[in-house]
# Entry
Amino acid sequence: MRCFIRRDVQAIGTCRACNKGICEACAVDLGHSICCQGSCEEKAKVINAQIAQSRTVFQTQRRSRFVAPAFFISMGVAFFLYAGTGKPGLNLGTVMGGGFVLFGSVLAIINQRYAKDLQKSA
# Structure
């Protein structure tokens, strides 16, 4: 592969921002990637910042994946308890409670599978 700017020189890699081949003279080292000098430097820094931010979001998501299911299941239990003080049988409270518990359980299973898939790909 040849440098996009200097066609007679062999490229050492591709720019992080524009994915064009660049030689050692045209490259700016960003630490863990390279980019073209000039306008691509700012774009590459933005890309690197987005990657770092997504890593932080991913780590936060891994820690809090059971918060929403626990909330929905506890709300379902609360509806069941509240409905139990009134008329026995099927009423709005028991239907809502069942819906919340079911939704929370399904959400917990989906989150667990998603976390396993992410862990396998990481």
Summary: The chain has a mean pLDDT of 86. Residues 64-121 form one domain. The first helix runs from residue 39 to 63. DSSP finds three helices and four strands in the chain.
